[in-house]
Design brief:
Blueprint: H1 2-12, E1 16-25, H2 29-41, E2 47-50, H3 91-113, E3 123-125, E4 128-133, H4 135-148, E5 158-160, H5 163-169, H6 171-174, E6 183-188, E7 192-194, H7 196-207, E8 213-216, E9 219-226, E10 232-238, E11 244-254, H8 260-267, E12 276-287, H9 290-295, E13 299-301, E14 315-321, E15 324-334, H10 347-351, H11 357-366, H12 368-379, H13 382-392, E16 401-405, E17 409-416, E18 420-424, E19 427-431, E20 437-442, H14 450-461, H15 463-466, H16 469-478, H17 490-503
Parallel strand pairs: 1-2, 1-11, 2-8, 4-13, 11-20
Antiparallel strand pairs: 3-7, 4-6, 5-6, 9-10, 10-11, 12-15, 12-16, 12-17, 13-14, 14-15, 17-18, 19-20
Helix pairs in contact: 2-7, 2-14, 3-14, 3-17
EC number: 1.1.5.4
Pathway: Carbohydrate metabolism; tricarboxylic acid cycle; oxaloacetate from (S)-malate (quinone route): step 1/1
InterPro entries: FAD/NAD-bd_sf, MQO
Length: 507
């Protein structure tokens, strides 16, 4: 009887209603970046940020849930695929390297302005390396090195097949190595380790000081509907109290990680038709031996296994989490129907619609290698995971490592005229024709290139404002190289890199 009475009281309450200019769904690095950009460009805009969990940056942006590398294509071999003729395609690497420099410039601006107080809490200088084993892969890496070092953004990259030099670069990897298997590596000292969880919390904390910006946690978005006046009505449930409310907004951004697809589908915009998602989970091996951790000072990326998704590229990874050095290896991919680490097993079934069944089936049939790879990964026992680590660290012992659950990613599936559907490895912004709602889908290199992605989103969704001279002047103040190619301007590239590194305390 008491439960029934409480139900009647809750149902009888009128929903709270509010109006804002902008609603940002998701309390991760994307919403934090977009909110900060909007606030810098137009401080008067009212913003509401909604996070489903009880804290921000606890899903994809959390330090233990993402790769943590400032993805700048300095070491990630999947951004430079080998072609049938043996050459290496480098256009994607150049684009990502440019975009990461944009991120660093914006972060440096925020440090100088006092928005970020202690940059060393989220960014550190850690060399980026690529390492390969076997004659074929050594030739690939050498070809990659020769192609990249012709580009301004990759000047300073070193290459070696000399085991004596490798013992200096990565002693942990060379210790106990026997046999004559060819090994080669490249190294760039300007690489970074980025804790996107710490960065997100800094940005959100600053936004929370603004009277026209509200950050709400424990808020689950239940529905998104278009109103007759063109605005969007976002229906939200407070997971702590059970109360529901409605927020009307002129613009909605969906940056909810894996849940973005599900929320985009709720909006009903035709541009969302045909998009699907394929969830990929993961695990790390985390070192618990302090002596071993101190022996390694680099992020060393290898080549992915056949069929492996990009976030599963194996790497022996120096990290700094909460000010403490850590060492991870992996990630090992797995499969779950959840779209978030703290999501529901019904996420994948709930995402399947009439408009995306064909693309999803087609993509599945075209990516049987991925399916086989994921099944193999799920079946791996701890000793099998250790064998993968031993290629990078021959002396590895399981007693020095523990298994840590990584984050959940959702790879984008989209319609394709030729194949019916294709699996996209990357990030993609999907927006309505009028630009009033947009969602970010996909994974890597997402967080590292968040500033460039969000600026392009603003240009697409607020075209009139983006054309104004005030907007352009402010962008150049925040990002001195904006509108120019660093790769085609060596002097400018050197200047902005030196400035960013000095301000971010990475000298």
């Amino acid at each position: 009887m008491l439960i029934l009475l409480e139900f009647i009281l809750v149902m009888g309450k009128k929903k709270q209603k509010s109006e804002v200019d902008v609603v940002l769904i998701g309390g991760g690095i994307m919403s934090a970046t977009l909110g900060t950009l909007i606030n810098e460009l137009n401080p008067d805009i009212d913003i509401e940020i909604l996070e489903r969990l009880d804290v921000v940056a606890a899903e994809s942006s959390d330090a233990w849930n993402n790769a943590g590398t400032g993805h700048s294509a300095l070491c990630e071999l999947n951004y430079t695929p080998q072609q049938a003729d043996g050459s290496v395609k480098i256009d994607k690497a150049i684009t990502i390297a440019e975009q990461f420099e944009v991120s660093k410039q914006f972060w440096a601006y925020l440090v100088e302005k006092g928005v970020i107080k202690n940059p060393e809490n989220f960014i550190r200088k850690v060399p980026h390396m690529s390492a390969v084993f076997g004659a074929d892969d050594v030739q690939f890496l050498k070809t990659r090195y020769e192609a990249l070092t012709k580009q301004t953004l990759f000047k300073g990259m070193e290459y070696t097949e000399d085991t004596a030099l490798l013992e200096q670069w990565v002693p942990l990897m060379m210790e106990g190595r026997v046999g004559n298997e060819p090994i080669a590596a490249t190294k760039m000292d300007i690489g970074t380790d980025v804790n996107f969880g710490a960065l997100t919390r800094d940005l959100i904390a600053h936004l929370a000081t603004k009277s026209n910006i509200n950050i709400s946690v424990n808020q689950e978005v239940k529905d998104i509907d278009r109103e007759d006046d063109g605005r969007w009505e976002v229906e939200v449930k407070d997971l702590k109290t059970g109360e529901k409310r409605e927020i009307k907004a002129k613009f909605v951004f969906i940056g909810a990680g894996g849940h973005s697809l599900l929320l985009l589908e709720k909006s009903g915009i035709p541009e969302a038709n045909g998009y699907g998602g394929f969830p990929v989970g993961g695990q790390w091996l985390r070192c618990t031996n302090e002596e071993i951790i101190k022996k390694h000072q680099a992020k060393v990326y290898g080549k992915a296994s056949v069929g492996a998704p990009p976030m599963s590229v194996p790497h022996l990874d120096t990290r700094y989490i909460d000010g403490k050095q850590a060492l991870l290896f992996g990630p090992y991919a797995g499969f779950s129907t959840k779209f978030l680490k703290q999501g529901s097993f019904f996420d994948l079934p709930a995402s399947i619609k009439l408009s995306n069944i064909k693309p999803m089936l087609s993509a599945g049939l075209d990516n049987l290698d991925l399916t086989k790879y994921l099944i193999t990964e799920v079946m791996k026992k701890p000793k099998d995971k250790l064998e993968s680590l031993k290629q990078f660290m021959p002396t590895a012992k399981m007693e020095d490592w523990v298994i840590e659950k990584a984050g959940q990613r959702v790879q984008v599936i989209k319609k394709d005229p030729k194949h019916g559907g294709v699996l996209e490895f990357g990030t993609e912004v999907v927006s309505s024709a009028d630009g009033s709602i947009a969602a970010l889908l996909g994974a890597s290199p997402g967080a590292s290139t968040s500033v460039a992605i969000m600026i392009q989103l603003l240009k697409k969704c607020f075209p009139d404002r983006a054309k104004s001279s005030e907007y352009k002047d402010k962008l150049r103040e925040m990002i001195p190289s904006w509108g120019q190619s660093l790769n085609e301007n060596p002097a400018l590239c050197a200047e902005v890199r030196e400035h960013s590194q000095r301000v971010l305390k990475m000298d």
